[in-house]
User: Fold these one by one.
Assistant:
Number 1:
Amino acid sequence: MTLEEKLSFVHWSYHTSDESAKVYLPGVPRLGIPEMRATDGPAGITIHRPSLALPAPVALASTFDDGLARSYGAVIGREGRAFGQDVVFAPMVNSIRVPYAGRNFETFSEDPLVTSRMAAAEIKGIQSQGLIAATKHYAANNQEKNRFSVNVNVDEQTLRERELPGFESAVAAGTGSVMCAYNKVNGQPACGSDELLNKVLKEQWKFRGWVTSDWLATQSTDALTKGLDQELGIELDHEPAPGEPIPGGKFFGDPLKTAIREGRIPESALDEAVTRIVSQMARFRLLDEDPPARPARDLAGGLKVARQVAEDGAVLLRNEGATLPLTTETAADIAVIGPTAKVPKVTGLGSSYIVPDAASAPLDTIRERAGAGSTVRYSTGEETVGVPVPQSALSAPRPSGEVFPAGGGGVLYDGTITVPVTGSYRIAARAQGGNAYVELDGQEPFGVGLVYGDVSSRPMRLAAGTHKLRITGAALAKSPMTFELTWVTPQAAQEAIDRAVSIARTARTAVVFAYDDGSEDGDRTSLSLPGRQDDLISAVAAVNPRTVVVLNTGSSLTMPWLRKTAAVLTMWYPGQAGAEATTALLFGDADPGGRLTQTFPADEGQTPFAGDARRYPGVDDQLDYSEGIYSGYRWYEQQGVQPLFSFGHGLSYTSFDYRDLKVTATADGGLDVCFTLRNTGTRTGKEVPQVYVGPSPHVRVAQAKRALAAYGKVELRPGESRRLTLHVERRALQNWDSGAHTWVTGPGRQVMVGPSLGRLPLSATAP
């Protein structure tokens, strides 16, 4: 190859005339090397709209089912190939460290074992269809706030035990690519860290694929010599029109060419990067004279998997007095409440946002399942759009209608908004044909438009008086942009609650759908439900003791209303088969098979980050993982803090009994944990038996009081018993010794077995 041809591989380009090739490599036609296209994930294929919307990855992880994770990956793989893609930026395997983090829904767990197993299975599924997986974001990328500039200070043991296992598992599973992160790690850019990229990833783990950066995460040309193989992202101030020239890579374009010609960077480093990329193209048969044919979409098959994941990943958190499943009597008169009951919450927001082929409303599927003899009434309960902001409240003309021509952009509004009374407001906006950002009083702006859903809104408490409001935006190259600005006043919000309470008061059962908007580009500011939803649930539960709450949320949250309710079912962001899955679970046509892969705190003052800004969100762009290995449930255990719901928690519509534990050593250095599991209830149900290990008295480094070491997924009929063996891998019995820079094995650990961290009825000492 010529130097120019080689350079064309190390920075992704942008195709202005092909919507399915927004991220692509041009290839080298004279050598028979075709172009390559990439798309975002990880809950479906984002480049094509519409496409199949799978449940959020956090729902997948909650299934604790490796086989289902592989099927989930295979759906993504087939969809991607059918839509003309060759690479998907998925899965995301970053740890759920911070409960506020905006992208927790896109990843798997706070536990490294769950993350590792889910990642490996999903990658195998994706790549079984010929689509290359690019596992992201390497490494320690666990928050959106200050993600572009923050430096993560993390000790070696914590990095090895908590942050890296998912990536190591992805490499072992054969991921074709790894995407590095925006943040710095111990002072070095993640996308320019010789330690992380060369020494750990490529030398120690023997990774043979290529490393690509996150969008505009490359920070220097010499990152090529530090393990970065490819730059993603082009600096643009507008969407380019068809045929408009596209600038090359900021660091791996002309600057790299100059550096090589001047001898500052050896051409051999470029050769290695290109070899890694082309080798993976060959591995996936993209260079074959007769490459594999692209499959047709399998929407029916994909929907079947999507529904199964939604059902098996749903977590029944509370079920007092067997309120669920609904019976003929309790379903005879239902009050359905909440905006996501009528406009389904399908996916999270940001780069993973999916426009589904179709998605039923839970209100409709509940009505159909309840049947003609039942009464199902609806009230929104929480207004999310409201009415246009009156011009009298604004200091400049309200932006409305077509605000930018095709390709145009700039400031939509720069002035003030005056609110008449102090209270909780919801500022909402809708943008079509482009993106906009709404900023109030200098706070973090919220996005509106393409990847933020039909309507974006932000609840906020505002004091009576004048507030600074600024709105910017940009239209797509091919269409003008329209914009509408609305609000929900405190009076309107209370009236919506009152209407919901009115229909709940006389209903036999009230089902309240509550939601949040997990999103890239921003963390949550609170663990409460946004807006007045906590007030809504409390008010409904006060007049109806049979109040069931269905959560369409992406991560843990507090529940001040919990003890007033009869049942709580978290569906996460359930994908486009979510309404059918939710209804099947409410009526008992399916058993909730999910268990929590993250701890739910009792309140915001009882998390690892309460009162410690150095841990989160950081101070002066310095973020300290000072909790060390004690993140997630390990922190709650170490501190003796009782959470709202423990890791692994989840109820079934039946009951299970654990007996007769036996633990034996195996030749591979692990353990076989054998016990008998029996369904003691009257229904067929699914259980997730979990094995935890305690610290070894022979290891002199920090150790968790209890750590997940193995798990399985079992379905049993009423009265059925099964003798199970769960294998604990040697790695689960090891800890990282930072002084020796190696794993050390510790015998004599206590082994505990049960349905969750909060209930472990069996225990024994390992040999």
Number 2:
Amino acid sequence: MGSKASEQRNRVATALERVRHQIGLVLGAAAGARQAAEAELAKLELEQHIVRVGMNHSTSEQYAEWSRHPAANEVFGLLGSVRGQFYAEWEAGPNALRELVANNAPGPASQQPGNWLGRVGTNPGITAPGLWRIGSATVPGQDVPRTFDVATPLLDESHLSIQSAPKTRATVDGIVQNLLMRILSTFEPGAVRVHLWDVGQLTAILPDLYPLSRTSALTLYDPGRLEDLLDELAGHIRRIHATGMQAGHTSLREIRQASGQRVEPFRVAVLYGNGETLEPERARELKRVATGALAAGICLILIDVPTMLSTSVESLSLHDDRHAVSSMTGPDLIVDLEPPMPSGQVIRAAGRIAEALIAKQGGPRAFADLLPTELGKESSARELRAPVGFFEGEAVEVVIGDASPHVLIGGPSGSGKTNFLYSLLGSFAARYSPDELALYLLDFKEGVSFAGLAPGRRDASWLPHAKLIGVNVNTDREFGLALLRYLADELRRRSAAAKLHEVTNLADLREQDPGGHWPRIVAVIDEFQYLFAGRDAVTSTATQLLEDIARRGRSQGIHLVLASQDVAGIEAFWGKPAVFEQCTLRIAMPKARRVLSETNNAAVSAPKWHAVINHDSGVAHGNQLAHVPDASSKDVFNKLQHRLWERYSESFKRPRLFDGAHSPVLEQFPAFTDLKPTDKPRALLGQSIDVDEAACGVDLPKAPGRNIAVLGAATAEALSIMDSAARSLARQHAEGAVEFVLSCPIEASIPAVLELAERLRADGHRAELVDDLPGRVIDIAENLSSLDRAQVLLLYGVDASIPALEAKAPGQLKSGLDQLRVLLKQGPAHGVHTIGWWRSIARLKDTLGFAGTDDIGTWAALDVQGNELSPFAAGQVVHWSPRPGRALFFDRTTHGAPEVIIPFQRPEGLLDG
């Protein structure tokens, strides 16, 4: 097949050259004959004059005498010979052209529009006509004038340059539109794509073709963004060249011939330059594109573009609105341009082609079309591979593996980024079982994009592949850091296993350790730039961890999917390109910028519900446009989730859900419900911001300094911490083994304290709300060595009690404050622990006096600035900006630095005061 097509192409080229040569010879011979005849006539006129003067006869006699002159017979004979030779040779030109066009411009390529306009083409696009009709030309004949079609080579054969004349824009549009309709009507839908650019018009570029704009067959470009079109064409050229080189071919035409398939569509790029001088860089890029375009199946039609191309280019220069000169016929032959096809017929024909293309693609594709017939049949040992959308009916896949280990997704708000993530996750989850794929999903923006993947009140199902789901974490950057630490720990664990088995990648590890559990891990972090929003330790540590995971994660099957509305403002990565260099898979939603390479702006013109998929680090030749079906609407993804849940829920645990917008409930928290009586009680203060659903607790052994301070004026959070600490301690003591002493001088908080006392009594413990705090403190301090049970002092608003504590009764040596200091220092060793709430750091310092801060071994700070906390954190600088619903926790016996915790939600019905 390839050799036959090549022979045919060579014959066309040879015939064209022969006809051009023949026309040139004939026109040259005619010009030479005319010049010779004119010279002979001038000579005869001179001789005639001599004869006339010498003989002095009448005119008729003179002419008769002259015609009998031997020279006259010679001239007449020469003229007859030239005329006969001219017409004999000229007859072959039109005949050859007619034969050439008939053989190489079949169907719509040359026939009158009435024979085909409105019909959908059937040529599959493996081969193309060699010529395309633009008009006709007429030459004189010996008997009658000779008319023949004028056609120009396009597509694989040649570019076309059109030079207009004044007031001929409508004529130029007619020429271009006629050619495009001939091409579009020749091939089956999808085999040709048209690109339109006009430096002078925002819209109305060949408007009759606009019905095609709802398909991939027609794309318009911004008049000020010629580079977008050139970049896209250059990308196609590089990609096709790379594909051809691998297969040993030098052009797309050879690839088609060898495979017998249309591996790529033909592309026709129409550029209206309006005679304006291109910028030097644009002109150079246009020349580079034109040089490699034909081999890549790309044909340029340039209208008034003042750039000389060093490649095969046919030219057409308009004389007026009906006539032109074509390089096909030579400079002395005028082409009668065919009239523009009727506008209404063109619009209807373009609409039929668009409808046929949509029907061929199966109509709008749905999320269900992405899913396999059987769930969980694929292996992730080598890679993860799944379709995320469709282009012209064909599935477009995303591949995550060693070659493309990490993903960068960008798209402004409303561009469909969340919908794309659902398509990606659903397509992967349907193909790989939870043993093959583990998902960690984190959404930093204020929303619940992934919340539906965890069990809820309305829907108890969850996505079995999900191990962690974090939503509404825009203010909890620490949770993102915790995820990175978890991934870094898992990376070290896998690296150690790989070293043990003497392998270097996940596939080999799974082969050598078939009994191990080594799924591929995909961590999706939406709006990941929030993780690096501050110039603090969180940003610094997160940057280091992310870079390490990005570099080494590929070999151990740990992959990052980083999504953002804009990656331009991430200062943490300025000068540190390691993460982005590892994100070789780039996905750009419509209007996204700086996600692909700096010069690749393909996403700017991408239509809604589409995405540009690029596995080559964003370089233009790797672009794949995909229509992404609706995956995020109500009940679309849920249907798949229910199928997966019903299949896997009994074998896999529900995912850990972290919702930054909701405080955890103590009664529902595993760390609380699992508490049992022990001789090593632990007070729970809040939830740790960590991958595991862990509580932040304080061990209260009989050791110095084991007291807890709650710092700040945030009443709700302070009451919550006091409540959860007391109730968790009560749960760990046998009935009657501990006594709770409560003091609350803050009237508004008394109802909450009374409610807590009732709960403690219900748990079998003595709980007393005292009015005389100084007296009770003095009593306990004086009897430390003889106490028969553990004591927990729950002191609310200690700063409000200081005046009463400072007062001394007549004859009293030590005040209640003095004895409180004794309890803080000596009480823990005797089983007396103080949990106090101070509303300011200054009041806590007043309470402690000159004893220093060692007696407060643990604290939870609320609305207190970090610089005030340094004395209570071993002198280190504390970075803390208070935020609602959060506390900063530090235990000098276990912490190197403070950590953020979330106070538990107090039971409904308690008053906050």
Number 3:
Amino acid sequence: MSDAATTDLYEVTMALSYLRERMTQPATFSCFVRDLPPGRAFLVAAGLESALDFLAGFHVGAADIDTFAETLRRPAADLAPLRDLRFTGEVRAVPEGHVVLAGEPLLEITAPLPQAQLVETFVLNQLSHQTAIAAKCARCVIAARGHPVVDFSLRRTHGTAAGYQAARLGAMAGFAGTSNVAAARAEHLTAVGTMAHSYIEAFEDEEAAFTAFARSHPGPVTFLVDTYDTESGVAVAARVLRDLGRTDGSAIRLDSGDLGALAVRARAVLDEAGLPGVRIVASGGLDEFALDDLTAAGAPIDVYAVGTRIGVSADAPYLDSAYKLVEYDGRPVMKLSSAKVTAPGRKQVFRRPGCADVIGLADEPPPADGVPLLETVMRDGVRTGPPGRLPDAARRLAADLAQLPETARSIRSPTPVRASFSGPLTDLAARVRHRIEHRVRGAATPPGDGRRPAPQPPRHTP
């Protein structure tokens, strides 16, 4: 069974019906976030690379057919039209790292309708989760006000794959390192880590634990000082570091309590011991709100380690994302459901100064001060270039954050930037709405009202 079976059942039933009805003309689906979560003024495009990897390898094999048939309780022969289905379409997308706003397409897929439908679940999963985490990480970097931030999230993310993604997305946002060894190795990140309270508890006392740790690890070390009494732990750490001559680049870590007040006292102890170069690392339930408070108060903390609340985007754990059909066989389509109206047609996002974006049609010329964001990244089911590089995504994000209005960068009660629709897109939406409403009104006309002949009952012969 391949990742093609990692899908919602209705994708399978729709794709099968399309194939049986010979509805295989090109369809365009647009993936976007309807509304931003509370407390968010922007999002960060992410997840594209894993989505493209999935599409490039998409293939419905025999094992997938068996899985579909068993799930539907139907003979495998009924699912035969899906056999050997591959993705042969085009993907246009916002490159990872760009700031994106509500309603803006993160990605648009154009492919034969059954293909474009069947890949929806996996693509939407990758973009939704990673875009949410990337935005959370970016807000941490903003709140840290230039202090290094590192990722400690792996042990509490919702699965190890999510932990890997959090480490990668943290690096995209500007994190200085991660505790995730596999992610550090694969993504060429700086691996960071200290010790757990259990390590301290395993020894007779803190001095023995610190000394043993330093013996095992040459170079700078970081001692966890709050296992028993924080101020006492800081004093012991200072003594061990000084006696061993291991002060350059070394640090202590605070993991509980009033981190701001404890950092002030710890800094005083270290300075009095002649160790001004020993840094203070803070961890323990931190997120952008805590970082904002600590940095605004001038807490003498050098490095912030964030974990649980970042790896799951605790205050905004999901996005109101959607993957909607916007064109089929050259015909623009839209949805008119209450509070879920979609815009028809293939689209482009034009980035203007200050992220005052315009959402327009894919084939319309950009505004004089607008730069198109969506790029063609896959054609005929094959990437148009090499995979995106993480440093490039990081540079895009830093540049976009720099041009966001200060009110959008605020950690508390930020003001979202709103994208506007272009004139051609607005006109198309009006025409398509009119066409649909006219058709719906016609279909709802009661029989015999003069607009169309009333259907006659069938004649029965004796």
Number 4:
Amino acid sequence: MKRIVTNLGVLQIFFSLLLVIAIMFVSTYLIYRNSISGIYDKVTQNNTLVFKSVVQSFDDSFRTVDNIIHSVHSLPPSDNLISPDDDSLDMTKVYTLVKNLSTLISTVDYIEEVVVFYDDARLAITSEGTSGFERFFDGKYRHDTYNASYWKTYASTKHAFKIFPADSFKVLDINQQPQSRNLMIAFGGNKLATSSKNVMVMIDVAALLKHVNQQSVIPGASLILLDQDRNIIYSTDKQWGLVDVLNDVYFNADREASLTRENYEYNFYKSDYNGFIYIDKVPYQFQNLNPVTQANDSIMLTAIICAVALSVFLSIYLNRPVKRILRLLGGGHSKGNDFRKIYSGIVKLQADNELYRDQLAFADKELRRGVFLQALDESAHAKAHDIQLQTYYPALFGEHCFVMVLFQARPRPDAGEAPLPVETIADRLEAGLRREGAEASVFHVSRAEFIAVVGLSKPEERARLLKRLRGSIAAAEKEALLGYDLWACVSEAYASEIKNANRGYRDVMNGMLYRGVGDAASVLDVEEIEYVWNVYFPFEKLEKLSNYLLNGKLQESVQIIRETMGENAARNVHRHQLVHIAKSMLFYMLRYAGSSANMREELYAIETEFCRRAEQTFDYRELEEALVAVAGRLSAYGRAEPKNKLNSAFISQYIELHYMENLYLDQIAAVMETTPKYFSNYFKKTFGVNYVEYLNKVRLSHARDLLRSTSLSIAEIGEKTGYLNASTFTTTFKKYMGVSPSDYRKQNDQQIV
């Protein structure tokens, strides 16, 4: 036993538990003292606020009843229901009044019924139909005092608006079984009535109390309601005894009053609306407070004794587990402060856990990115694989709907700083969206493309998101992503289902493809894309482009490039259309650039570099300059004429360049520095056809393009393609094509580009 008592670990545990118990005791005692001293004041203050709210609710309810009575007086008919023709009851007026009554009280749940009757007609008109006056009050709504005779007598006297005290009525249900119902009758005044109607409103007291919501008043409090003549209308306390209280209290309309009698406090409130008096009867003090205090002291003393004893036993019991925990944390059997060693071990575990948490967060983020990329993939996946990934779907779609946003983030050439990591760009884009109030997850997809899934509670929020997105991009370009050019494309709104992810992705990808080259907006709405197909593609100029480059005419080549790109930009064609045009121009330029092995490798490098740049640029001017740069590199190959002009490449290029001229056999033979006969034999052997036939095919190929794409006359087209007159052109065209030029144009009629 001595060994246990002198054990440092046991003493540490004991004093630690004792310190905890002491702190708990002091805090409990202070709370107890403070709560006992101020609890009544706080409860009564809260009750005062609640009761004022109840008074306001009663006033609003009585105001609604008064408004309904005035509305009934204004309903047609304003006179009696007797027809002036035959002194009979006009049922059309009756049914109209029934319908209007039903509409009038349909939204007020605490009104049991509205009854309308006339002095000269023994008929009760309600929202549910009509009934005999005596049958209604002596049968359906039965009361010993308030019967049909009482109401007829009261209606014949001059009276103001009055609310009769709540009382129990025998009411027949739909099965004609009597049920007790607590009702309050509001009878409209007839001193200043605007019609001959007598109007009664039957109020369901239970529904009225539910409407005013007096559940939050202090337990034991009572509500007493008096009219302006100090007649009790309703009371929750049957033994109220107000005679002496009302005689002692001084009460007027502009202030409240309070009175204490015996064990209760009476708080009086007078309504500004109708002069009704509301009395809140609450207990003045908590009774038997001293026995409660003594019992609480006994409980705390007993708890202290038990806690000390429990500390002793727990100290001995926990000594061995503490040693084991210390060994698990690497403390071994070394002497010293056990709790300090445990603390050091826990700190080390926390550091390890923090590292593991970061690793798990990274893995979880990458897994969510993988799930998202899989959702964009239209390929089929194993069902088991999809089931395992379904747990990550809620992280992608936090709302009922979503839109997908494709971001393009390109560093500016003049930024002068190293590009940011794609993870950093994604995080900053996501943070920018959240600052604008949009719940989003942003993922890096490829190169400079980032996809954001933005949640919407309803599709109508999409328009507001577009405005916030413009502000987010403008702010990012100035701060978080300074040195970057940002574009965004927003998809349509879709229901938050994983199958719609691919549809949103197709929207934004197609949106970037169909972006107008002249559109400078930072945010593209796929719903506002205007699809156009007025591409400018001059075939005859592009044929000349390759020939100009072959002959080293760079200036003429650049002019064709700028004219073609500028015209398409003016027409605001789609981005993918302009990229296609640029690639076609590139292929025209590469067509006759050369055929040696070294040249093919360089041409391959030129082509791949241009295609990569074309896919990443959004400004048509950059694309135009890239074409001009390619033309400059290719023109160097065409400046030096071949030593032997009599080769197939040079001959075909010369014909393509000069087909519109009078290119006779002896003229081209002279250009090739040979005789017409030798040239003719060489041409036939090399090309498989004679020279004239080949020249006609080249000319007619261009003529067909002009017939399809221009409105030039037949004679003008013949002249442009090298024929002396329209007759020769028509005869030659029909010989090779089988139809005349005019018939060919009709067969291939299309819109002129």
